[in-house]
Amino acid sequence: MRLDKYISNATDLSRTDVKKLIKSGLVSIDDELATSGSQKVTDEQDIAIEGSTIQLMATRYFMMNKPAGVVSATKDHTNPTALDLIYEHRNDQLQIAGRLDIDTTGLLLITDDGQWNHIVTSPRTDCKKVYLVELENPVGKDYQRKLETGIALEGEKRRCLPASMEVIDDHHIRLCISEGKYHQVKRMMTSLGNHVVSLHRLQIGGIELDPNLEPGDYRPLTEEEIASIQ
Ligand code: URA
């Protein structure tokens, strides 16, 4: 990573401030004076400002119980975002791993680990997402078979990957999918001739929504939860 990026990631300093520090001879790499912000550095090197070593923050992982009315984006001009509800140092570096619609509630994963995020969201990794779906019309007898075959969504060339469901009652199912296409669950239910009244995400891979989290609350993931995404 570039030296100026490394320092501004590890501190609250802007790249311009970092450049000034380097120019003033206050930054060292393994005890040698740094000469330019573009110098490449690694985590193994000792980067110091005025003799004090700085360290990149460890990667962070959180789960949130997303309330309705909050968008799963990092910035939005009209509505509050999930990141507005996260009170952490440098929360501008956090990303949402698998978005939810504004009216969908439940499990939202938030991290600054891009690779981990990719494993959660890529359809190739078969990371299952489980939703509680409330339907306008009664559950059809043919739903299970159609979901297993792969639903054809309007405007998509390829069918959805096979999905499974468990009937809770006439109007509620627990649906398990392994992709995250735009409005996927709502479009799948439309394709089955039904309509989603409410949608709540319960689980992603081995991570279940913590029942102790009130809507809008979040907590760090445990080591086991982080490692369960592979
Ligand atoms: N599918 C949807 O239609 N909406 C969501 O928020 C998540 C999955």
Q: Any ligands, ions or cofactors bound here, and which? A: uracil
One letter per element, helices H and strands E, the order comes to HHEEEEEEEHEHEEHEEEH
Kindly, what is the distance between the CA atoms of the first and last residues, rounded to a whole number of angstroms? Answer: 25 Å
Choose one word for the global shape: elongated
Helix fraction, binned, reads 10-25%
Radius of gyration: 22 Å
How much of the residues is beta strand, in percent? 25-35%
Secondary-structure-derived class: alpha+beta
Please describe what this structure looks like:
By secondary structure, the chain is of the alpha+beta class. It is 20% helix and 26% strand. The strands form 2 sheets. Strands 5, 6, 7, 8, 9, 10, 11, 12 and 13 form a 9-stranded mixed beta sheet that branches. The protein has a 4-stranded antiparallel beta sheet with strand order 2-1-3-4. The mean pLDDT is 94. Uracil binds at residues 100-101, 104, 183-186, 199.
